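Protocol step 4 of 5: obtain the predicted structure for the target chain.
Materials: sequence only (see below). No template structures provided, no constraints applied. The aim of this step is simply to have a reference model before the mutagenesis design in step 5. Sequence pasted as it appears in the construct record:
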Amino acid sequence: MKKKIVVIKHVENEGPGSIGDFFRNSAWELHTIELYNGDPLKISLDELAAVVVMGGPMNVYQEDKYPFLKEENSFIKKIVEREIPYLGICLGSQLLAKACGAAVIKAPVKEVGWFKVSLTMEAAHDPFFQGIEEPLEVFQWHEDTFTVPDGGVLLATAETCKNQAFRYGRNAYGLQFHVEVTTDMIWSWVKADESLPNAVELLMGAYQKKEILARQTAKISDNFSVLLKA
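Step 4 output (structure tokens):
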């Protein structure tokens, strides 16, 4: 049976982007679950090669407003317990932290735009970040941030918002930043928020850093795919 990489979306305009492009050309079947459209999370864990959880504007504790978050929390706990490879991006990283018993809090600074992120000493020995150019130039769009769960390992950090990436267990990873973004995705996010004072800067950065971002994403996707074979 061909195993699936399941992508979980919380809103229409936050999909897998370039990571999805990478895995569509891989040996695994890509399957998308759109929670905002009422898609159920009923899938056999035995069918899963990995789970990729995307971002969204909601807070992880808004389970009354977004009832699917409660079911998703239980689902992520099962994924971690079974040691199925997990990659959470932005909200997906915060959901992983919550499922592992850590708090998600308001970030000291709302990060929207291009930022530099440094890898920790622990990341040097972690397969997920092998071969990555440092510092990483990443795209951010978040108000909340995760704390690292007990037993988790901080892998990336930044001056504005300390916790940027972590690993829990053998192969569950959370990234606060958006490695999956494409210029089209950034354009759609900017259009959806007319209050942004730096919209032009964000879009210019998307084109200027296109090649850097593509290299980073390709390497991270490749590193993550190795975990699926382990």
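Step 4 remarks: The first strand starts at residue 4 and ends at 9. The two ends are 17 Å apart (CA to CA).
Proceed to step 5.
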